[in-house]
Design brief:
Elements lengths: L2 E5 L3 E2 L5 E8 L8 E6 L6 E6 L6 E3 L7 E6 L4 E6 L8 E7 L3 E2 L3 E5 L2
Parallel strand pairs: 2-11
Antiparallel strand pairs: 1-3, 3-8, 4-5, 4-9, 5-6, 7-8, 9-10, 9-11
Length: 113
């Protein structure tokens, strides 16, 4: 069955960096777009970034453009989200999402001094 397992969330100070990972299994990973979403307390889940099956095409929400980078390693069935210059408003649970309409369980990112 399809499984998406996120990791890498942590407590980090404003201006810091984190790298999230999402390990996928149960489907032909290299055939599908993958995305990151996030949900802050009391807010709706929002799209953060998307990457094409090959990894050549990426897109970002305006709120993270220039600070976050999505990438993938199809040999490892894993996508990544490199987050730099983190702000308190980036605090959220971050979710991995497959084009097959499956979600991971989420990983908590907290940006606070």
């Amino acid at each position: 069955q399809v499984q998406l397992v996120e990791s890498g969330g942590d407590l980090v100070q404003p201006g810091g960096s984190l790298r999230l990972s999402c390990a996928a299994s149960g489907f032909t990973f290299s055939n599908y777009y993958m995305s990151w979403y996030r949900q802050a307390p009391g807010k709706e889940r929002e799209w953060v970034a998307r990457i094409s099956a090959s990894g050549r095409i990426t897109s970002y929400a305006d709120s993270v453009k220039g600070r976050f980078t999505i990438s993938r390693d199809n040999a490892k069935n894993t996508i990544y989200l490199q987050m730099n210059s983190l702000k308190p408003e980036d605090t959220a649970v971050y979710y991995c999402f497959s084009q097959l309409d499956f979600w991971g369980q989420g990983t908590q990112v907290t940006v606070s001094s």
